[in-house]
Amino acid sequence: MREFLSRHEVSYQSLDVFADPSAKQEAARLHVEIVPTLVRGDRRITVLHTDQLRDFLGMPPGDEPPAYQDLVEALNAVLEGVERAVRQTSAAQLALPTPNRGRDLRELTYNIHHPINLMRNALDGAGFQWDTSNDVAPSRVFDTPDKLAAFCRETRTAWYARASRFEAERVERPVRTARGTVSQHQLLSAQAGHAAQHLRQIYVFLREQGIEPQHELGPDDIRPIVLGAEVF
User: Fold this and answer.
1) What pTM was estimated for this model as a whole?
2) I need a labelling partner for 173 at 20 to 30 A (CA). Which of 33, 99, 105, 183 fits?
3) Which helix (H) or strand (E) holds 175?
4) pLDDT tens digits for 152-193?
5) What CA–CA distance (Å, rounded) separates 129 from 177?
6) Same domain flag for 91 and 161
7) How many independent structural domains does the chain possess?
8) Nearest-angstrom CA–CA distance, 108 and 98
9) 6 in any annotated domain
């Protein structure tokens, strides 16, 4: 969200509720429970997709989005990349803090894949009630790379089996989420970007551990997913 606002020359103040106690207090005062949330005067919006920001700020529509199935293939490649990265680690390294807010690799990997499972259910009419506040507890069961990689593979293959045959006439249908209503297309786009951004962060973590990522995915490998300049 920050890069979007900066790119469009929208002035803002960023508050990091995870690192700054005063920001956390301000969020509590404003009754902000989910991030990212943009507050402007007495108006606010919790953001899942940048199209929501455009509507909120009165901006014109963006470019035509990539084709749904192109995003499906790109996200599948990203998730395969996460599984490969997990398999390169040791059990001890799974528990080490990553540069992403100090979350360990188990929590970060769960944060990538849990919404993928929710998105699969949303394809068949369920809402998308993604709550990241309790990612730690369910991620503790993955105490070896093999267990975590198996979770990655099972989640990815179940989602891909459904998404790769999702009906074209339904991709623009609405999905209710805790961050507002978006289309199936927007939901996929948001989660593809989310997973790809975290994969980029996992690569940083691997290198901090002296591990060179195998078959590292670059910008051309994940198109039409496009990431900004900020890694964290």
Assistant:
1) 0.92
2) 33
3) strand 174-177
4) 999 999 999 999 999 999 999 999 999 999 999 999 999 999
5) 5
6) yes
7) 2
8) 8
9) yes
